[in-house]
Amino acid sequence: MPATQLLIGEEWVDAATGATGQTVDPATGEILADFAEASPADVDAAVSAARSGFESDEWRSLTPDARGKILWRIADLIEENGAELAALETSDQGQPIGVSTNVSIPLAAQTFRYYAGWATKLEGKVSPVSIPGQFTYQQRRPLGVVGLITPWNFPFDIAAWKLAPALATGNAAILKPAEQTPLSTVRLVELAREAGVPAGVVNLLTGGPEVGKALVAHDGVDKISFTGSTAVGQDIVRAAAASLKRVGLELGGKAPSIVAQDADIDAAVMGNLQGALFNTGQACGAFTRFFVHRSRVDEFVEKIAAAADALKIGPGSDPETVVGPLASAEHLARVHGFVTSGKTEGAQLVTGGERVGGELENGFFYRPTVFTEVTDEMTIAREEIFGPVLSIMPYEDLDEAIARANNTDFGLAAVVWTQDLKTAHSLPERIEAGTVFVNQLPLIDPGAPWGGFGKSGWGREMGAYSLDEYTETQSVFINLG
Protein backbone atom coordinates (compact mmCIF):
# COMPACT_ATOMS: atom_id res chain seq x y z
CA MET A 1 0.00 0.00 0.00
CA PRO A 2 1.49 3.41 -0.95
CA ALA A 3 1.96 6.05 1.73
CA THR A 4 -1.18 8.02 2.52
CA GLN A 5 -1.20 11.81 2.26
CA LEU A 6 -2.83 14.76 3.97
CA LEU A 7 -5.88 16.46 2.49
CA ILE A 8 -5.55 20.23 2.77
CA GLY A 9 -8.15 22.16 0.82
CA GLU A 10 -8.50 20.39 -2.49
CA GLU A 11 -4.99 18.91 -2.62
CA TRP A 12 -3.65 15.60 -1.37
CA VAL A 13 -0.13 16.43 -0.23
CA ASP A 14 2.84 14.99 1.65
CA ALA A 15 3.67 16.50 5.02
CA ALA A 16 5.53 19.79 4.73
CA THR A 17 8.60 18.20 6.32
CA GLY A 18 8.29 15.00 4.30
CA ALA A 19 8.03 13.02 7.54
CA THR A 20 6.07 9.77 7.66
CA GLY A 21 4.86 7.34 10.28
CA GLN A 22 3.88 3.69 10.08
CA THR A 23 0.75 1.79 10.97
CA VAL A 24 0.97 -1.88 12.00
CA ASP A 25 -1.30 -4.91 11.64
CA PRO A 26 -1.95 -5.88 15.28
CA ALA A 27 -2.61 -9.50 14.29
CA THR A 28 0.89 -9.99 12.88
CA GLY A 29 3.03 -7.06 14.01
CA GLU A 30 3.84 -6.33 10.37
CA ILE A 31 3.86 -2.83 8.86
CA LEU A 32 0.73 -2.12 6.86
CA ALA A 33 1.44 1.31 5.41
CA ASP A 34 3.22 4.62 5.82
CA PHE A 35 1.26 7.79 6.47
CA ALA A 36 2.16 11.47 6.29
CA GLU A 37 3.24 12.87 9.66
CA ALA A 38 1.77 16.36 9.73
CA SER A 39 3.81 19.29 11.07
CA PRO A 40 2.73 22.60 12.65
CA ALA A 41 2.94 24.14 9.19
CA ASP A 42 0.46 21.56 7.91
CA VAL A 43 -1.89 22.34 10.79
CA ASP A 44 -1.75 26.04 9.90
CA ALA A 45 -2.45 25.22 6.26
CA ALA A 46 -5.37 22.93 7.12
CA VAL A 47 -6.96 25.52 9.41
CA SER A 48 -6.62 28.18 6.70
CA ALA A 49 -8.12 25.83 4.11
CA ALA A 50 -10.98 24.94 6.43
CA ARG A 51 -11.73 28.59 7.08
CA SER A 52 -11.80 29.26 3.35
CA GLY A 53 -14.03 26.25 2.81
CA PHE A 54 -16.41 27.34 5.56
CA GLU A 55 -16.68 30.88 4.17
CA SER A 56 -16.89 29.83 0.52
CA ASP A 57 -20.01 30.61 -1.49
CA GLU A 58 -19.99 27.00 -2.69
CA TRP A 59 -20.61 25.73 0.85
CA ARG A 60 -22.65 28.58 2.33
CA SER A 61 -24.97 28.82 -0.64
CA LEU A 62 -25.94 25.15 -0.44
CA THR A 63 -29.53 24.71 0.63
CA PRO A 64 -30.20 22.47 3.64
CA ASP A 65 -31.67 19.92 1.24
CA ALA A 66 -28.47 19.95 -0.85
CA ARG A 67 -26.33 19.45 2.27
CA GLY A 68 -28.54 16.54 3.25
CA LYS A 69 -28.16 14.95 -0.17
CA ILE A 70 -24.36 15.08 0.16
CA LEU A 71 -24.51 13.31 3.51
CA TRP A 72 -26.88 10.72 2.06
CA ARG A 73 -24.47 10.19 -0.82
CA ILE A 74 -21.63 9.60 1.66
CA ALA A 75 -23.77 6.89 3.26
CA ASP A 76 -24.37 5.29 -0.13
CA LEU A 77 -20.64 5.31 -0.90
CA ILE A 78 -19.85 3.74 2.46
CA GLU A 79 -22.21 0.89 1.66
CA GLU A 80 -20.92 0.53 -1.91
CA ASN A 81 -17.36 0.25 -0.57
CA GLY A 82 -18.33 -1.69 2.55
CA ALA A 83 -16.17 -4.76 1.98
CA GLU A 84 -13.07 -2.64 1.36
CA LEU A 85 -13.73 -0.46 4.40
CA ALA A 86 -14.35 -3.44 6.67
CA ALA A 87 -11.10 -5.06 5.53
CA LEU A 88 -9.21 -1.80 6.20
CA GLU A 89 -10.70 -1.53 9.68
CA THR A 90 -9.90 -5.15 10.49
CA SER A 91 -6.33 -5.05 9.23
CA ASP A 92 -5.47 -1.69 10.80
CA GLN A 93 -7.36 -1.95 14.11
CA GLY A 94 -7.77 -5.71 14.58
CA GLN A 95 -11.57 -5.82 14.80
CA PRO A 96 -13.02 -9.23 13.99
CA ILE A 97 -14.31 -9.05 10.42
CA GLY A 98 -17.82 -9.84 11.66
CA VAL A 99 -17.73 -6.68 13.79
CA SER A 100 -16.33 -4.43 11.10
CA THR A 101 -18.66 -5.83 8.42
CA ASN A 102 -21.88 -6.10 10.40
CA VAL A 103 -21.52 -3.33 12.98
CA SER A 104 -18.92 -0.66 12.23
CA ILE A 105 -19.55 -0.02 8.55
CA PRO A 106 -23.39 -0.21 8.65
CA LEU A 107 -23.50 2.05 11.72
CA ALA A 108 -21.37 4.68 9.98
CA ALA A 109 -23.69 4.69 6.95
CA GLN A 110 -26.71 4.86 9.23
CA THR A 111 -25.18 7.84 11.04
CA PHE A 112 -24.70 9.85 7.85
CA ARG A 113 -28.29 9.12 6.79
CA TYR A 114 -29.61 10.13 10.19
CA TYR A 115 -27.88 13.53 10.03
CA ALA A 116 -28.77 13.97 6.38
CA GLY A 117 -32.33 14.22 7.63
CA TRP A 118 -31.41 16.80 10.26
CA ALA A 119 -29.92 19.19 7.68
CA THR A 120 -33.44 20.39 6.81
CA LYS A 121 -34.69 20.53 10.40
CA LEU A 122 -32.36 22.97 12.15
CA GLU A 123 -35.19 25.14 13.34
CA GLY A 124 -35.21 28.21 15.57
CA LYS A 125 -38.15 29.77 17.34
CA VAL A 126 -39.93 33.06 17.88
CA SER A 127 -39.77 34.43 21.44
CA PRO A 128 -42.61 36.48 22.93
CA VAL A 129 -40.47 39.23 24.52
CA SER A 130 -42.01 42.00 26.63
CA ILE A 131 -40.33 44.93 24.85
CA PRO A 132 -42.98 46.82 22.81
CA GLY A 133 -42.62 46.85 19.04
CA GLN A 134 -40.15 43.97 18.83
CA PHE A 135 -40.14 40.83 16.70
CA THR A 136 -37.57 38.45 18.19
CA TYR A 137 -36.43 35.07 16.95
CA GLN A 138 -33.56 32.61 17.40
CA GLN A 139 -31.64 30.66 14.79
CA ARG A 140 -28.85 28.09 14.84
CA ARG A 141 -25.53 29.14 13.37
CA PRO A 142 -22.60 26.80 12.56
CA LEU A 143 -19.53 27.27 14.75
CA GLY A 144 -17.05 27.52 11.87
CA VAL A 145 -13.93 25.33 11.84
CA VAL A 146 -14.11 22.20 14.00
CA GLY A 147 -11.26 19.87 14.84
CA LEU A 148 -12.34 16.22 15.12
CA ILE A 149 -9.84 14.02 16.97
CA THR A 150 -10.69 10.32 16.96
CA PRO A 151 -9.34 7.26 18.84
CA TRP A 152 -7.92 3.96 17.66
CA ASN A 153 -10.62 1.58 18.92
CA PHE A 154 -13.46 2.38 16.47
CA PRO A 155 -11.76 4.78 14.06
CA PHE A 156 -14.29 4.67 11.21
CA ASP A 157 -17.44 4.84 13.31
CA ILE A 158 -16.30 7.62 15.60
CA ALA A 159 -15.10 9.69 12.66
CA ALA A 160 -18.62 9.32 11.21
CA TRP A 161 -20.26 10.25 14.53
CA LYS A 162 -18.34 13.54 14.52
CA LEU A 163 -18.18 14.41 10.83
CA ALA A 164 -21.86 13.82 10.00
CA PRO A 165 -23.36 16.32 12.48
CA ALA A 166 -20.54 18.79 11.83
CA LEU A 167 -21.41 18.85 8.12
CA ALA A 168 -25.17 18.72 8.63
CA THR A 169 -24.96 21.94 10.64
CA GLY A 170 -22.78 23.70 8.04
CA ASN A 171 -19.32 23.62 9.61
CA ALA A 172 -15.95 22.90 8.01
CA ALA A 173 -13.94 20.08 9.58
CA ILE A 174 -10.39 18.91 10.13
CA LEU A 175 -10.22 15.19 10.91
CA LYS A 176 -7.26 13.91 12.91
CA PRO A 177 -7.35 10.11 13.39
CA ALA A 178 -5.21 8.23 15.90
CA GLU A 179 -1.77 7.47 14.53
CA GLN A 180 -2.28 3.74 15.24
CA THR A 181 -5.30 3.46 12.90
CA PRO A 182 -5.46 6.13 10.18
CA LEU A 183 -6.32 4.08 7.11
CA SER A 184 -10.12 3.87 7.23
CA THR A 185 -10.38 7.59 8.00
CA VAL A 186 -8.27 8.42 4.97
CA ARG A 187 -10.75 6.44 2.89
CA LEU A 188 -13.73 8.15 4.53
CA VAL A 189 -12.34 11.55 3.58
CA GLU A 190 -11.86 10.37 0.00
CA LEU A 191 -15.49 9.28 -0.09
CA ALA A 192 -16.66 12.61 1.34
CA ARG A 193 -14.93 14.46 -1.48
CA GLU A 194 -16.35 12.00 -4.01
CA ALA A 195 -19.82 12.65 -2.60
CA GLY A 196 -19.52 16.35 -3.39
CA VAL A 197 -18.24 17.99 -0.21
CA PRO A 198 -16.61 21.22 -1.47
CA ALA A 199 -12.86 21.79 -1.23
CA GLY A 200 -11.72 22.87 2.21
CA VAL A 201 -14.88 21.74 3.99
CA VAL A 202 -13.28 18.43 4.97
CA ASN A 203 -9.53 18.26 5.64
CA LEU A 204 -7.34 15.45 6.94
CA LEU A 205 -4.27 15.55 9.16
CA THR A 206 -2.54 12.29 10.11
CA GLY A 207 0.19 11.97 12.68
CA GLY A 208 0.89 11.60 16.37
CA PRO A 209 -0.10 13.50 19.52
CA GLU A 210 1.79 16.66 18.55
CA VAL A 211 -0.57 17.15 15.61
CA GLY A 212 -3.57 16.98 17.91
CA LYS A 213 -1.95 19.38 20.38
CA ALA A 214 -1.29 21.92 17.61
CA LEU A 215 -4.89 21.63 16.43
CA VAL A 216 -6.24 22.17 19.95
CA ALA A 217 -4.01 25.21 20.53
CA HIS A 218 -4.76 26.86 17.19
CA ASP A 219 -6.71 30.13 17.50
CA GLY A 220 -8.37 29.48 14.13
CA VAL A 221 -10.22 26.40 15.39
CA ASP A 222 -13.64 27.13 16.91
CA LYS A 223 -14.31 23.73 18.49
CA ILE A 224 -12.52 20.51 19.36
CA SER A 225 -14.42 17.24 19.54
CA PHE A 226 -12.25 14.55 21.11
CA THR A 227 -12.78 10.89 21.94
CA GLY A 228 -10.08 9.21 23.98
CA SER A 229 -8.59 8.98 27.45
CA THR A 230 -9.64 11.15 30.36
CA ALA A 231 -6.06 12.33 30.92
CA VAL A 232 -5.76 13.64 27.37
CA GLY A 233 -9.23 15.18 27.62
CA GLN A 234 -8.11 17.11 30.70
CA ASP A 235 -5.04 18.34 28.79
CA ILE A 236 -7.31 19.50 25.96
CA VAL A 237 -9.49 21.50 28.35
CA ARG A 238 -6.45 23.26 29.77
CA ALA A 239 -5.05 24.04 26.30
CA ALA A 240 -8.41 25.21 24.94
CA ALA A 241 -8.88 27.65 27.81
CA ALA A 242 -6.55 30.20 26.20
CA SER A 243 -8.89 30.77 23.25
CA LEU A 244 -12.09 29.64 25.02
CA LYS A 245 -12.91 27.41 22.06
CA ARG A 246 -15.81 25.00 22.47
CA VAL A 247 -14.81 21.50 23.60
CA GLY A 248 -16.73 18.22 23.40
CA LEU A 249 -15.26 15.19 25.15
CA GLU A 250 -16.19 11.50 25.13
CA LEU A 251 -13.71 9.97 27.52
CA GLY A 252 -13.09 6.89 29.63
CA GLY A 253 -15.49 4.44 31.18
CA LYS A 254 -15.62 1.76 33.86
CA ALA A 255 -19.07 0.35 33.21
CA PRO A 256 -20.66 -1.56 36.08
CA SER A 257 -22.90 -4.54 35.46
CA ILE A 258 -25.39 -5.24 38.25
CA VAL A 259 -26.67 -8.81 38.20
CA ALA A 260 -29.77 -8.96 40.40
CA GLN A 261 -30.61 -12.00 42.49
CA ASP A 262 -33.52 -12.81 40.15
CA ALA A 263 -31.50 -12.48 36.94
CA ASP A 264 -31.44 -15.19 34.29
CA ILE A 265 -27.84 -16.20 34.96
CA ASP A 266 -27.27 -17.89 31.62
CA ALA A 267 -28.48 -14.79 29.76
CA ALA A 268 -26.42 -12.55 32.05
CA VAL A 269 -23.31 -14.64 31.52
CA MET A 270 -23.50 -14.53 27.73
CA GLY A 271 -24.60 -10.89 27.58
CA ASN A 272 -21.92 -9.76 29.99
CA LEU A 273 -19.24 -11.76 28.22
CA GLN A 274 -20.14 -10.22 24.87
CA GLY A 275 -20.48 -6.77 26.42
CA ALA A 276 -17.08 -7.12 28.08
CA LEU A 277 -15.16 -8.58 25.14
CA PHE A 278 -16.73 -6.69 22.23
CA ASN A 279 -13.75 -5.52 20.15
CA THR A 280 -11.52 -7.37 22.66
CA GLY A 281 -12.70 -5.08 25.45
CA GLN A 282 -11.40 -2.02 23.62
CA ALA A 283 -14.60 -0.04 23.98
CA CYS A 284 -15.29 2.80 26.40
CA GLY A 285 -18.73 1.35 27.15
CA ALA A 286 -17.46 -2.20 27.72
CA PHE A 287 -18.80 -3.94 30.82
CA THR A 288 -15.90 -4.27 33.26
CA ARG A 289 -17.09 -4.41 36.91
CA PHE A 290 -19.56 -7.20 37.63
CA PHE A 291 -21.59 -6.82 40.81
CA VAL A 292 -23.27 -10.20 41.31
CA HIS A 293 -25.59 -11.08 44.18
CA ARG A 294 -23.66 -13.26 46.61
CA SER A 295 -26.17 -16.10 46.29
CA ARG A 296 -25.47 -16.34 42.54
CA VAL A 297 -21.79 -15.38 42.34
CA ASP A 298 -20.27 -18.89 42.35
CA GLU A 299 -22.51 -19.99 39.50
CA PHE A 300 -21.81 -16.81 37.58
CA VAL A 301 -18.01 -17.10 37.98
CA GLU A 302 -17.95 -20.75 36.94
CA LYS A 303 -20.07 -20.19 33.84
CA ILE A 304 -18.46 -16.98 32.61
CA ALA A 305 -14.94 -18.34 33.06
CA ALA A 306 -15.80 -21.47 31.09
CA ALA A 307 -17.46 -19.43 28.35
CA ALA A 308 -14.46 -17.09 28.15
CA ASP A 309 -12.08 -20.02 27.79
CA ALA A 310 -14.13 -21.38 24.90
CA LEU A 311 -14.00 -18.24 22.74
CA LYS A 312 -12.05 -18.37 19.49
CA ILE A 313 -8.96 -16.12 19.63
CA GLY A 314 -7.37 -15.18 16.33
CA PRO A 315 -6.78 -12.58 13.65
CA GLY A 316 -9.71 -10.39 12.79
CA SER A 317 -9.61 -11.63 9.20
CA ASP A 318 -10.78 -15.09 10.34
CA PRO A 319 -14.62 -15.09 10.22
CA GLU A 320 -14.73 -17.38 13.26
CA THR A 321 -12.66 -15.09 15.48
CA VAL A 322 -14.46 -13.68 18.52
CA VAL A 323 -11.48 -12.21 20.38
CA GLY A 324 -9.02 -10.39 18.14
CA PRO A 325 -5.71 -8.73 18.97
CA LEU A 326 -5.20 -5.66 21.08
CA ALA A 327 -4.42 -2.61 18.98
CA SER A 328 -0.69 -2.26 19.64
CA ALA A 329 2.29 -3.71 21.47
CA GLU A 330 2.19 -0.72 23.80
CA HIS A 331 -1.43 -1.39 24.71
CA LEU A 332 -0.76 -5.10 25.18
CA ALA A 333 1.90 -4.24 27.75
CA ARG A 334 -0.49 -1.82 29.47
CA VAL A 335 -3.25 -4.44 29.79
CA HIS A 336 -0.82 -7.02 31.15
CA GLY A 337 0.39 -4.44 33.67
CA PHE A 338 -3.14 -4.13 35.01
CA VAL A 339 -3.48 -7.90 35.26
CA THR A 340 -0.22 -8.06 37.19
CA SER A 341 -1.48 -5.39 39.58
CA GLY A 342 -4.68 -7.37 40.16
CA LYS A 343 -2.72 -10.43 41.23
CA THR A 344 -0.35 -8.36 43.36
CA GLU A 345 -3.22 -6.60 45.15
CA GLY A 346 -4.92 -9.86 46.05
CA ALA A 347 -7.55 -10.54 43.40
CA GLN A 348 -8.05 -14.21 42.52
CA LEU A 349 -7.25 -15.06 38.90
CA VAL A 350 -9.80 -17.56 37.60
CA THR A 351 -8.70 -17.77 33.98
CA GLY A 352 -6.53 -16.01 31.41
CA GLY A 353 -3.94 -13.47 32.53
CA GLU A 354 -1.39 -14.08 29.81
CA ARG A 355 -0.39 -13.32 26.26
CA VAL A 356 -1.29 -15.83 23.56
CA GLY A 357 1.70 -17.66 22.10
CA GLY A 358 2.18 -20.30 19.42
CA GLU A 359 1.19 -19.29 15.91
CA LEU A 360 -0.22 -16.00 17.27
CA GLU A 361 2.90 -14.94 19.18
CA ASN A 362 3.82 -12.17 16.72
CA GLY A 363 0.45 -10.48 17.17
CA PHE A 364 -0.86 -8.57 20.16
CA PHE A 365 -3.21 -11.23 21.52
CA TYR A 366 -4.25 -11.56 25.16
CA ARG A 367 -6.42 -14.24 26.74
CA PRO A 368 -9.78 -13.22 28.17
CA THR A 369 -9.11 -12.77 31.86
CA VAL A 370 -11.52 -13.24 34.77
CA PHE A 371 -10.80 -12.11 38.33
CA THR A 372 -12.89 -12.72 41.44
CA GLU A 373 -12.40 -11.55 45.03
CA VAL A 374 -11.95 -8.04 43.64
CA THR A 375 -12.42 -5.15 46.06
CA ASP A 376 -13.49 -1.62 45.16
CA GLU A 377 -10.08 -0.15 46.03
CA MET A 378 -8.05 -2.36 43.68
CA THR A 379 -6.50 -0.79 40.62
CA ILE A 380 -8.35 -3.15 38.28
CA ALA A 381 -11.64 -1.98 39.83
CA ARG A 382 -10.87 1.73 39.49
CA GLU A 383 -8.79 2.31 36.35
CA GLU A 384 -9.97 1.88 32.77
CA ILE A 385 -8.14 -1.17 31.43
CA PHE A 386 -9.56 -1.14 27.89
CA GLY A 387 -8.94 -4.82 27.38
CA PRO A 388 -10.39 -8.31 27.98
CA VAL A 389 -10.29 -8.17 31.79
CA LEU A 390 -13.39 -8.88 33.92
CA SER A 391 -13.62 -8.15 37.66
CA ILE A 392 -16.37 -10.00 39.58
CA MET A 393 -17.50 -8.50 42.89
CA PRO A 394 -20.22 -10.01 45.13
CA TYR A 395 -22.81 -7.84 46.92
CA GLU A 396 -25.56 -8.42 49.53
CA ASP A 397 -28.41 -6.11 48.43
CA LEU A 398 -29.21 -3.70 45.59
CA ASP A 399 -28.60 -0.57 47.65
CA GLU A 400 -25.05 -1.77 48.22
CA ALA A 401 -24.60 -2.67 44.56
CA ILE A 402 -25.76 0.77 43.39
CA ALA A 403 -23.54 2.61 45.86
CA ARG A 404 -20.50 0.61 44.77
CA ALA A 405 -21.36 0.92 41.08
CA ASN A 406 -21.46 4.71 41.50
CA ASN A 407 -18.19 4.75 43.45
CA THR A 408 -16.09 5.72 40.44
CA ASP A 409 -14.79 8.80 38.67
CA PHE A 410 -16.40 7.57 35.46
CA GLY A 411 -20.03 7.55 34.36
CA LEU A 412 -20.34 6.56 30.72
CA ALA A 413 -22.42 3.37 30.71
CA ALA A 414 -23.90 0.71 32.98
CA VAL A 415 -26.08 -2.37 32.69
CA VAL A 416 -28.67 -4.07 34.88
CA TRP A 417 -29.69 -7.74 34.62
CA THR A 418 -33.06 -8.59 36.14
CA GLN A 419 -36.36 -10.31 35.38
CA ASP A 420 -38.29 -7.94 37.65
CA LEU A 421 -40.05 -5.07 35.88
CA LYS A 422 -39.88 -2.78 38.92
CA THR A 423 -36.13 -3.28 39.25
CA ALA A 424 -35.64 -2.70 35.52
CA HIS A 425 -37.37 0.69 35.71
CA SER A 426 -36.26 1.89 39.14
CA LEU A 427 -32.53 1.18 39.07
CA PRO A 428 -31.44 3.23 36.03
CA GLU A 429 -32.35 6.60 37.60
CA ARG A 430 -30.18 5.72 40.60
CA ILE A 431 -27.11 4.91 38.50
CA GLU A 432 -24.70 7.72 37.61
CA ALA A 433 -24.12 6.97 33.93
CA GLY A 434 -24.96 8.61 30.65
CA THR A 435 -26.51 5.40 29.29
CA VAL A 436 -27.99 2.51 31.27
CA PHE A 437 -28.77 -0.74 29.48
CA VAL A 438 -31.16 -3.37 30.82
CA ASN A 439 -30.63 -7.03 29.88
CA GLN A 440 -28.57 -6.30 26.78
CA LEU A 441 -25.26 -5.41 25.17
CA PRO A 442 -23.85 -1.84 25.05
CA LEU A 443 -25.56 -0.82 21.81
CA ILE A 444 -25.30 2.56 20.07
CA ASP A 445 -27.82 4.08 17.66
CA PRO A 446 -27.64 7.44 15.86
CA GLY A 447 -31.03 8.38 17.29
CA ALA A 448 -29.94 8.18 20.94
CA PRO A 449 -27.37 10.43 22.66
CA TRP A 450 -24.07 8.96 23.84
CA GLY A 451 -21.84 10.55 26.46
CA GLY A 452 -21.00 10.44 30.12
CA PHE A 453 -21.15 11.87 33.61
CA GLY A 454 -18.11 12.94 35.63
CA LYS A 455 -14.72 12.16 34.11
CA SER A 456 -16.39 10.35 31.21
CA GLY A 457 -16.68 13.67 29.40
CA TRP A 458 -18.62 16.74 28.36
CA GLY A 459 -21.54 16.93 25.96
CA ARG A 460 -23.23 14.28 23.86
CA GLU A 461 -22.67 12.62 20.51
CA MET A 462 -25.47 11.15 18.40
CA GLY A 463 -29.13 12.06 18.42
CA ALA A 464 -30.52 15.57 18.22
CA TYR A 465 -28.34 16.50 21.20
CA SER A 466 -25.17 16.58 19.09
CA LEU A 467 -26.62 19.41 16.99
CA ASP A 468 -26.07 21.63 20.03
CA GLU A 469 -22.41 20.60 20.00
CA TYR A 470 -21.85 22.08 16.52
CA THR A 471 -24.04 25.20 16.56
CA GLU A 472 -24.42 28.51 18.34
CA THR A 473 -27.82 30.02 19.09
CA GLN A 474 -28.24 33.56 17.80
CA SER A 475 -31.08 35.90 18.81
CA VAL A 476 -32.33 38.56 16.38
CA PHE A 477 -34.37 41.59 17.50
CA ILE A 478 -36.30 43.47 14.81
CA ASN A 479 -37.66 46.91 15.71
CA LEU A 480 -41.21 47.17 14.37
CA GLY A 481 -41.94 50.51 16.06
TrEMBL record:
Protein name in the entry: Aldehyde dehydrogenase family protein
Family: Belongs to the aldehyde dehydrogenase family.
Organism domain of life: Bacteria
Domain annotation Aldehyde dehydrogenase: ranges: 12-476
Entry annotation: catalytic residues: E250
Keywords, comma-separated and alphabetical: Oxidoreductase
Single annotated GO MF: oxidoreductase activity, acting on the aldehyde or oxo group of donors, NAD or NADP as acceptor
